[in-house]
Amino acid sequence: MSVLIVGSTALDSIKTPKAENPRLLGGSASHAALAASFFSPVRLVGVVGQDFPKRYLQLYKRRRIDLQALQILPGKTFHWSGEYEANMNRRRTLLTELGVFETFTPTLPNSHQKSPFVLLANIAPLLQHHVLNQMQRPKFVVADTMDLWLNIALPELLKLLKRLDAFVLNDSEAHQLTTEENVFAALKKIHKLGPRYVIIKKGSHGSILSGPRGFFLCPAYPLHQVVDPTGAGDSFVGGMMGYLATARGSIEDNLRRAMIYGSVVASFCCEGFGLQRTSRITRGQIGHRVKELERLARF
Ligand code: AMP
Questions:
Q1: Sign (positive/negative) of CA torsion 237, 235, 256, 181?
Q2: Distance (Å, rounded) from C-alpha 240 to C-alpha 94?
């Protein structure tokens, strides 16, 4: 089954203590789409400007990502720039230029409206609503967000939470949304806002699922060196949705395993700048790390 993914399709300029890389392929939807494409057919909904390099479009195509709903408009591609501290869990946004995203209001082709799995990757909540409004009885809808939208679009985000099956956010955002220091207390409060499943990401410390069957603690794959963690969260949720869409049986039965797959794709993402590493991996390499994680977490 296919996954429809809407989010940012961006050029990222990233600075770490060791290196600096301008205008990489980035954006929440790009990371999520590449991650999901290892498991299921992906339909990408986004917009880029005429400055968007052709080689990036080719990369999407090599991963067989459906680009029918990726618009190329006059103007500039969304540009984001960030800088990491020596502790790579901490970063600072240096610049966000929305460019062609400022007025982006996509109309989905009929085929896309019937996608059973929908990932509303990090982007303005109004755009997430706009896409969700066009979907015809989706099977499972997941959304991600970031601190910016909690700051400037909280009412729209709260409305969105009532329309989701699952909400994914990181621990600092969960704290900001609920004022709870304790993640388990935060999870309880977020359920009350709507979603049946809530996943809190904790960077290199893994993630926690809370759902009708209780909690699941998903480990992060242990990496000895992180090159660039940009997009790890998007790769996690993209990989998770891609796996879910392809797995047989009920979502509830598969969600935990799907998180493990997401966690593994996210680990590859951290090993290179932007999508450089993720774009070169194979399904076999993913399977290998999943087995290692299984061995590490069994007791
Ligand atoms: P993550 O590291 O998972 O938080 O995701 C980083 C990605 O989010 C980068 O590729 C950015 O292009 C993208 N991004 C940064 N700011 C925004 C924003 N305001 N809206 C949408 N995407 C963004």
A1: negative
A2: 29
What mean pLDDT comes out for the span 191-209?
A: 97
At a CB cut-off of 8 Å and minimum separation 6, what does 143 contact?
119, 120, 121, 128, 160, 161, 164, 166, 167, 168
Q: 64: alpha, beta or left, given left = phi > 0 and alpha = psi -120 to 50? A: left
Ligand 1 centroid to Cα of residue 122, in Å, is 7
Spatial CA neighbour of 1 closest among 34, 42, 31? 42
Q: How far is the CA of 296 from the centre of ligand 1 (A)?
A: 30
Q: What is the per-residue pLDDT for 258?
A: 98
Q: Over the Cα atoms of the chain, what is R_g?
A: 18
Ligand 1 environment, Cβ below 6 A = 8, 10, 12, 26-28, 31, 80, 96, 122-123, 148, 230-234
Which ligand 1 atom sits closest to the C-alpha of 11?
Answer: 12
- Give the pLDDT of residue 132: 98
pTM of the model: 0.97
Q: What is the DSSP letter of 137?
A: S
pLDDT at 190 over 90: yes
Q: What is the pLDDT of residues 68-104, one digit of tens each?
A: 999 999 999 999 999 999 998 889 999 999 999 999 9
Give the ligand 1 atom nearest the CA of 26: 10
Shortest-distance Cα residue to atom 4 of ligand 1: 231
Helix (H/G/I), strand (E/B), else coil: 115? coil
Show the tokens assigned to 294. Answer: 């299984």
Asked whether residue 253 carries a pLDDT value surpassing 90, the answer given is no
